[in-house]
Write a structure and sequence with these properties.
185 residues; alpha+beta; four-stranded antiparallel sheet; 4 helices; 13 strands; globular; binds flavin mononucleotide
Length: 185
């Protein structure tokens, strides 16, 4: 082991990583989507997820005002849309309309589920904890949905490396998938 900076150590653990899209909406706003790398499954019974959102995001305001959200797992089909939702703000644009994101009705609230996602979880926020410059929202899953196309793969945040196929890129953000194994038989 060699001692190094925190940034260098984090670079070694950060990628590949799963991604999530969180849809939120206040009573009088349109639905908005944020791209997240910082999320995790935290309980089986009851089923729960935690998401970590910087307080400066528009989504932070919406999540604080309405205690419900949809956590969607983007498919590789959603690479450009996922990147776009992660570099623009719902303060300025309607991301669903602008990026042509297919939405459907859920069962918990008027917050839509994402039809090209691998899976969607409709959550009720049960607590929130401040963690430095981010806030962790913990949601209990009330309804779950999976894509009827079982071949769809989850999109990943990937390193720039020959083992991964790049599907969308903007500066340090590289989204993609594991390269298909070309071996036959
Ligand atoms: C790959 C990727 C991962 C991201 N992960 C997070 C995250 O875990 N938490 C967070 O607060 N922002 C994260 N962001 C940044 C937000 O998605 C971004 O600031 C977004 O524009 C905020 O949108 P909003 O203002 O509409 O809420 C990520 C962005 C990308 C592209």
């Amino acid at each position: 082991m060699i001692e190094c900076s925190r940034v260098d150590a984090i670079k070694r653990m950060n990628k590949p990583a799963r991604l999530a899209l969180v849809v939120s909406k206040s009573e009088d706003s349109r639905p908005n989507i944020i791209t997240l790398q910082w999320f995790m499954h935290t309980s089986f019974e009851p089923p729960m997820f935690a998401i970590s959102i910087k307080q400066t995001r528009f989504s932070y305001k919406l999540l604080s005002e309405n205690r419900k959200f949809v956590l969607a797992i983007p498919s590789t089909k959603m690479a450009e849309q996922t990147l776009a939702c992660g570099i623009t703000s719902g303060r300025d644009i309607d991301k669903i309309k602008e990026f042509n994101i297919k939405v459907g009705r859920g069962k918990l609230s008027d917050i839509p589920i994402l039809l090209d996602a691998v899976a969607n979880f409709e959550c009720k926020t049960i607590s929130q904890i401040r963690s430095g410059d981010h806030t962790i929202f913990i949601g209990e899953v009330k309804y779950s949905w999976q894509n009827e196309n079982t071949k769809l793969k989850p999109l990943l945040s990937v390193p720039y490396d020959r083992n991964y196929e790049v599907l969308a890129r903007d500066g340090r953000y590289i989204l993609g998938m594991v390269k298909r194994n070309k071996l036959k038989g």
